[in-house]
From TrEMBL:
Coiled coil: none annotated. It comes from Candidatus Avoscillospira stercorigallinarum. GO terms for molecular function: DNA binding; DNA-binding transcription factor activity. Residues 69-250 form the IclR-ED domain. Keywords: DNA-binding, Transcription, Transcription regulation. It comes from the Bacteria. May be an activator protein for the gylABX operon. The keyword Transcription regulation applies. This is Glycerol operon regulatory protein.
Length: 250
């Protein structure tokens, strides 16, 4: 961010929203003040202002949580994205055909966000929850975005990213990751082999826009036994073919 263009009060309000969104429960004023390091009076003023616009609300004990206005914004935003409308019948179809969870993703500030998903028939709870943020270096969709983005952008993102080892299979070496990205470009899809969650494997393929960029990714995630299995190979073929269809539809 360019500090000269940042309005500090707005930036602090956004930080508070991020904090409340990350919390698994409503937070007290004292807790928020302690975690941000800001005076209670500053935090209270920001929260009170946001509460007037329903961006923040309070429960019966006076603790703070996200407000209904954010839900309204989210619904408005999702309704305005053509990609979700276009991709939805495709992801629902291949989820039904494969029995696995199918997801549609976008990249934002060096992290992957799930825009939409279709659940599998087994009810398996995966990491591809709508709206969640996922790391870029150890998910199939994250590696896919890295492989297809301009080199300067990739260097910038990786210079700030921590290649955290989520499992013993996570790629934590920049050199090994670069080799993986070259492979992804050559084969046209990306694979996650238990690198983010042990036992989970996924495959993602690029959705191209009219300019040839890759703003979206579609993928399948599940408890595949191994990436060499026929089941996983079939999932890969389906994902690549579906990504091509969505790209043409765009």
């Amino acid at each position: 961010m360019q500090e000269g263009k940042i309005i500090q009060s707005v930036a602090k309000a956004m930080c508070l929203l991020d904090l409340l969104a990350a919390s698994e429960r409503p937070m007290t004023l004292a807790e928020i003040s302690a975690q941000t390091g800001w005076p209670k009076s500053t935090v209270h003023g920001l929260l009170s202002t946001m509460r007037e616009f329903s961006a923040v609300s309070q429960d019966e004990d006076g603790r703070y949580l996200l407000g209904i206005r954010l839900f309204e914004y989210g619904c408005t935003l999702s309704n305005s994205w053509t990609i979700i409308e276009i991709a939805k019948p495709y992801i629902q179809h291949i989820s039904y055909e494969t029995g696995e969870t199918v997801f549609l993703s976008i990249l934002d500030r060096g992290e992957v966000i799930t825009l939409d998903r279709a659940d599998n028939r087994t009810g398996l709870n995966t990491t591809a929850e709508v709206g969640c943020r996922l790391p870029i270096h150890c998910t199939s969709q994250g590696k896919l975005f890295l492989a297809y983005m301009p080199e300067a952008e990739r260097r910038s993102i990786l210079s700030q990213a921590k290649l955290e080892p989520y499992t013993p299979l996570t790629i934590t070496s920049p050199e090994a990751l670069n080799r993986e990205l070259l492979l992804i470009r050559s084969q046209g899809y990306a694979i996650e082999n238990g690198e983010y969650k042990t036992g989970l494997r996924s495959v993602s393929a690029p959705i191209f826009d009219h300019a040839g960029a890759v703003p979206y990714a579609i993928g399948i995630i599940g408890m595949f036994r191994q990436i060499e299995s026929e089941q996983f190979s079939r999932a890969t073929r389906v994902v690549v073919e579906t990504a091509q269809k969505i790209s043409k539809a765009l």
